[in-house]
Amino acid sequence: MTNQRRGIVKLGRRLFLQGAAGVVVGLPLLESFMPRRVKGEDTIFRYALFVRQGNGCQQGLGMDEPDRFWPTKLGALTSAGMQADGDQAVNVLADFAAKLLLVRGCEMKSLQDAGCGHSSGGLLCLTASKANGKHIEDSLATSESIDNRIVRELQGGTFEPLTLRVGKRSGYLDDVLSYRAAGDRRVAESNPLNAYKALFGVPTAPSEEERQTKRRKSVNDLVRNEMNALLGNKRLSTNDRYRIEQHQQAIADLEVNMSCDLPAELYNDLSGVTTAQSESDANVVQIAKLQARVMALAVACGQRRAGTLQIGNGNDGSQYTIGNEKLESFHHISHRVNSDGAEGTAIEGADIKHHKIDKLFASMYKELLIALDGFTTPTGTLLDEGVSVWLNDLSNGPPHSTRNMPYVCAGSCGGVLKTGVYVDAADVANNKYVTHNKFLNTLAAAVGCKNAAGEPLDDFGDSTLAKGRVPQMLI
């Protein structure tokens, strides 16, 4: 740290405020204190966030089950229309109908056998690349994931995408989504407090006397004088003032949320949510909500342009409690039998239970949309500035197809993507599905990624896949 006085201090490339009782608060990236390529340039901050569900969704696909996932018809989405459309899983999101883009008709083409649909799905989901030739838990993707591409291209090599998870670890396909490069898969952070600290730093420990005196104050109170001095700095741009104000509010909101199950004391005194709590089936919804708030804060403060939240491991065996009922292993439910394979005793009402779990995931994804929508911008809300995606690494329950992947998007990336509509990307007449690398291209291009020629990205993923984007998704 270059300066130990109270006020702005710097550690590496990051700025902090040091206040009373030694408390240090990480600041958002402030353009006013960083060199610009063009004087007066006002960078548009686009982002992409991904919330992953495993085991497919309950959408039938030729099985002897009705489709309980998608809206009942293509076309415009309205809150009233979704509410009147019945018990479809996506209708949990009816409040955000005008900001949704539902995309059917994409296929996640398996380029090489990984020995398990869950293994293949996890490594393909955000890479659109083939496996490395090994099987099951040893199988890895052979290229980077789209979240890595976005951060690498738009933020530079010193940043990594935010990589979070919720749910227990079993030693089998624990982390499946994010890749730095071929064979280099990231380990996701399951503790939201650890994720926050990694983004914004850790308050230094005050003396016991200071702790007793200050324990009931907010972190914002302890740096208020320093924050006011910073806000009075004439170098600050309008965007920076907005980011700081949103950051202050987000810190206060996080403290309130984290105090639900933790002692109401100084944020820097909290030992945090334990790893055991973060990885317990009983706490999935609560932890997912906290992780969603951390993701939204990371975007609002300009810290990350992309991130992933993986809920459950590769073949999510979590036992979700819905209402007062603790369900069987989700993996078993997705197979419709009490087994990790095709044989076993039938689970009564497994399709209905799968549908209920889909709706639970919709509610967890909705928490991210609520968090992003809570940050206002000069043109709307933070939700409108980027795209947030609820996706799966499989299509349905048995037989775990990868056709008609369930893609639910929210946010237009500043008016690039369509919203308020349910579209079909497939050539329905000829039963031809669009390979999902084009879906990933569309999202990354909307955020601002380019191909080697400097045009909007159209060639992400394995070289054997056709280039392009999904025109049905674009304005």
Would you write up a description of this structure?
The protein has 475 residues and is of the alpha/beta class. It has 14 helices and 19 strands. The protein has an 8-stranded mixed sheet, with helices on both faces. Strands 1-2-3 form a 3-stranded antiparallel sheet. The protein starts with 6 loop residues before the first strand and ends in a 28-residue tail after the last helix. The relative contact order is 0.20.
Unreliable stretches covering 5 or more consecutive residues: 1-5, 34-42, 203-208, 210-216, 256-271
How much strand content do the residues show?
A: 5-15%
Overall mean pLDDT stands at: 85
Rg over C-alpha atoms, rounded to the nearest angstrom = 22 Å
Briefly note the structural class of the backbone.
alpha/beta
Terminal CA distance reads: 47 Å
Count of DSSP strands: 19
Question: Can you give the helix content as a percent range?
Answer: 25-40%
Tell me the strand order in the biggest sheet.
5-18-6-17-16-4-11-8
Query: Main sheet?
Result: 8 strands, mixed
The total count of helices amounts to 14
Overall shape: it is: globular
Key descriptive features of the protein:
3-stranded antiparallel β-sheet, 14% strand, 14 helices
In short:
Helices cover 29% and strands 14% of the residues. A hairpin with a 2-residue loop joins strand 14 and strand 15. The longest helix has 24 residues.
Topology overview:
Layout: E1 7-11, E2 14-18, E3 24-26, E4 48-53, E5 75-76, H1 79-83, E6 100-104, E7 106-107, H2 117-124, H3 146-155, E8 162-166, E9 179-181, E10 184-185, H4 192-200, H5 208-214, H6 219-222, H7 224-231, H8 238-258, H9 275-278, H10 284-300, E11 306-311, E12 321-322, E13 325-326, H11 330-335, H12 350-373, E14 376-377, E15 380-381, H13 382-385, E16 387-392, E17 407-410, E18 421-424, E19 434-435, H14 436-447
Parallel strand pairs: 4-11, 4-16, 6-18, 7-19, 8-11
Antiparallel strand pairs: 1-2, 2-3, 5-18, 6-17, 9-10, 12-13, 14-15, 16-17
Helix pairs in contact: 3-14, 4-10, 8-10, 10-12
